[in-house]
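In full, the data.
>
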Amino acid sequence: MQSDKKSDIKETAQPGPARMEENLFRSRFVFIVGAIEDKMAGNVVARLVALAQESPEPIYVIVSSPGGHVESGDLIHDMIKFIPAPVYMIGSGWVASAGAIIFLAVPKERRLCLENTRFLLHEPSGGVGGSVSDIEIQATEIIKMRERLAAIIARETGQAVAKVLADIDRDLWMSAQEAIDYGLVGRLVTHMAEIKAKE
């Protein structure tokens, strides 16, 4: 029985999901795209740990996120610091809220962005409800979270904590250049070769 040669060629030319996943793993790219929540955070940290175990070579994290669950962002932020492989952050699209805190997990010289990236910093928000006692506890925790996140932003950007607290009282939008000026971003890149040249 003869095989269809055209069909064989087509199947060879279009790798399936497993082959694409293998190529992605070898590229050492990790994507944080979309809202940040528990399942995404679990997938991201699993990939980070696997890549760090496979090789001490740099890992490249693309961030384009509106933010999301703060504690899920904390998990990714802390794991990036925890693993031994150096991580490069590359902002694209928009990097907002919890996404910006993840972005700040690496030293400034490894925080990069593409030219059309926008950044958003703001204070945490959350639904407050229940009994008066519960509302008081939740409000206290939001204030603690606000101060903690402001301290991270201040430490990683070189801004004073008081200035950060004032800045995030309302939505603070920044262009790529404004984010560089603020200390959020180390430099703007337009091509992968510009990252490799600095390693």
Observations:
- The first strand starts at residue 29 and ends at 33.
- Residues 127-167 form one domain.
- Residues 132-157 form the longest helix (26 residues).
